[in-house]
Amino acid sequence: MLPDASISVRIMMSVCLLLMTWPVSGEEHYKRAAFTNLTWQEGMPVVEIEGQWYRVSAINEIPVDSLVRICKKVYPLSWPEDFGLKLTKLLKIAGVPVIDEIRFSGSLLSDPGKAVQLDPVPLTTQNWQALQLSLAVYNKRVRRDHTDAVAEKHHFIRERILSRREVDSIGLELTWESDWDKYEYYRKETVRKNKLPLWLEPREIQEDLDQLEWILEHHYSYLGYHIFDYRTALDVIRSGAGEGMSAMDFSLQVQRVLGMFGDGHTRVRFHKRWYGYDKKEQYWPFYITAYKDRFLVYEGERKHLLDPEHPFLKGGNGQETEEFMRIPMGLQSGGNIALTRRKWASWTNKLEFLEQAFALSGKELILELESADGKSSVSRSITLLDDEPDSDREKRPSELMTGNIGYLRIDKMRTRSSYLEALTDWMLAFKDTRGLIIDLRDNAGGSRIILHRLFPFFVDPEDGPRVISVAAYRLDPATAPIAKNGYLKDRELFPLSSSIWIAEEKDAIRQFAKTFVPEWKLPKDKFSEWHYSVISPKASHPKYYYYDKPVILLMDQQCYSATEVFLAAFKGMKNVTLLGETTTGGSGRAKVFELFHSRIQMRMCTMASFRPDGKIFEGKGVTPDIHFPDSLNDHLGITDDMKARAVQLILSR
After folding, report:
1. C-alpha–C-alpha distance, residues 384 and 364, integer Å
2. Which positions ≥6 away from 171 have C-beta within 8 Å?
3. What is the pLDDT of residues 600-623, one digit of tens each?
4. Full-prediction pTM beyond 0.70?
């Protein structure tokens, strides 16, 4: 081989020679390795060396993507593990044989922006054995057989597990789109017509987990965004299948895995039948909600505190809050503390869940409550209710305030035409006001239609169309990479090629795209082209006008999903100020999938959503221009200091 030949030429010649002459299936390999563990991110290896994880960019000066291509050609059925176990052979094929050590280039997983060049790492048998052990469970899973029942319904399971090849199939997906009522009807009819399983056999658990893994890898949009070894997590459930488990226990385990991604839209739907609920339903006479780093306890109607002198949860049944919340806290994590606390409060309000998680069935529940200063506490014995309490909180009505200031309250991102018309009527009533307060506090999201209905009032006709959000759809094996009008119509997002745009809007998108830089680089070939949401001035529309007075948007930690998209669209606009606290952080388009045996139904995000400034919504939230945390009295509706502060800001301009 010529000494001055390029690396790429040497690689191609070596691979061709190997494929022509070597019987790979019976080949011996050197049982030595330089690293002790291996995983994959975006198709590239991440390795563990002396307790540190590294993203690898080159090995012995050969680009790692070249070595991966060689590995896939030589070991097409087992390349993910053989990249580590047979790396010395791959280097020999590439024309760079090694004897005692390997040189790595890359970056620390914990600091991907900093390039590192490791000192030569020795090849040892001990490392190879440790690597083999790390991959042993994975190898066992790959070679496991499956029943014909599942293979007939979802042929991709057999093909994927036995050959590691991707096939053209998409799992059992429900027709849901954005209509929750339609999904609820489907779910109830499914439960009514089909007896749900209460117990799952080991093989049923294994096959459902394989299906779940396939769905994650081919549909879930935020796979790879958070560093989470979901395969190992699924293997933990596999190894604990034993002689089987109840459908309820299995559903909790699946939720724990999904919760670790830190994505609030991705979750499991729990069936009451799994809890053994053939009995008359009963309800807690209290309601827990997150407030800063503590939890308030309301009466069931959410109109009054359970104990005004001791408003905060201290614990329950002799356990402190941290221990009391430990089990449900594990159902939502991923590092998003605000989302975790909201989800914990939500789970804790479910009677059937607490009975299962804390073995409370037939036992008395005693809540420990404490004062705001934490100096005194009381115990409250809880008696269940036969009727579900009305949990709607007191609503703040929209109004024309003293001083000629408009106050527009949006408590939920609704879709009803009557509600949208009412908001439009209020905007007409506020046309000549001195300023406007839009209150979005405690708004957990819904539809983006309200944004598209209201935003044109605030677009300066001289500025033209404005891009307010960007997203990409997670392609699955059966989805074409390009569709004329895209895949996110239900989120008012369309690709540049869509016929929906007028000429001015296309120009605005092209100009925007020149400077748009997403903070998360999406995995190549797994997402659609960019989809854009654009709003244009409607100066010629009889009901629209340009509101050019000061606008204050009120926000808090309870703002989520479509509400955050609303806030992000307004952020940075002239005359607009965001006042309050950073939002939860989440935006995803969920589809519903059902596992074959357990019939667990899961909502799973299928788009990656970004703000106009390139920041991702998931786990980050929208920050206010002026940080102004609500006081306890504000939260309880006794006072409203945040609203008063907004009035001051308007009057001072």
Report:
1. 10
2. 154, 156, 211, 214, 215, 218, 219, 593
3. 888 899 999 999 999 999 878 899
4. no
Cα 341 to Cα 488: distance, rounded to the nearest angstrom: 30
- The span from the CA of 649 to the CA of 653, in Å, is 7
Read off the pLDDT of residues 400-437 as tens digits, 9 standing for 90 and up: 999 999 999 999 999 899 999 999 999 999 999 999 99
C-alpha span between 244 and 617 (Å, rounded): 39
- Reference 409, options 587, 650, 644, 643; nearest CA is 643
pLDDT digit string, tens, across residues 376-409: 999 988 877 767 666 665 568 999 999 999 999 9
CB 226, CB 334: distance < 8 Å: yes
Beta strands in 371-428 (DSSP E): 377-382, 399-401, 405-409
- Please give the angle made by the CA atoms of 126, 129 and 132, to the nearest 5 degrees: 150
- Give, in order, the Cα–Cα distances in Å from 478 to each of 151, 167, 475: 18, 9, 8
**Residue 494: closest CA among 502, 134, 322:** 502
- Classify 192 in phi/psi space as left (phi over 0), alpha (psi -120 to 50) or beta: alpha
Place of tokens 């200031």: 405
CA distance to 62, 381, 388, per residue, from 295 (Å): 55, 18, 21
If we measure between CA atoms, which residue out of 254, 250, 260, 252 comes closest to residue 223? Answer: 260
Task: Supply the DSSP string of 38-53, one letter for each residue.
Answer: EEEETTEEEEEETTEE
- Long-range own/partner contacts, residues 518-522 (CB < 8 A, 24 or more apart): 518/470, 518/610, 518/614, 518/616, 519/610, 519/614, 519/615, 519/616, 520/225, 520/608, 520/616, 522/472, 522/608
Question: β-strand 601-605 against 121-122: which pairing, if any?
Answer: unpaired
| Contact between residue 88 and residue 70 where contact means Cβ atoms under 8 Å apart | no
CA distances from 568 to 386, 411, 511 (A): 43, 17, 19
Contact (CB, 8 A) for 596 and 208: yes
Q: Which amino acid is at 333?
A: S
Q: Are 595 and 207 in contact (CB under 8 A)?
A: no
Instruction: Give every CB contact of residue 571 below 8 A, 6+ residues apart in sequence.
Output: 578, 611, 622, 625
Tokens standing for residue 463 = 């500025």
Element (H, E) at 37: strand 37-41
Whole-angstrom distance between the N-terminal and C-terminal Cα of the chain?
A: 77
CA dihedral 648, 650, 652, 653 (to 10 degrees): 170
- The helix (H) or strand (E) run that includes residue 210 is helix 202-219
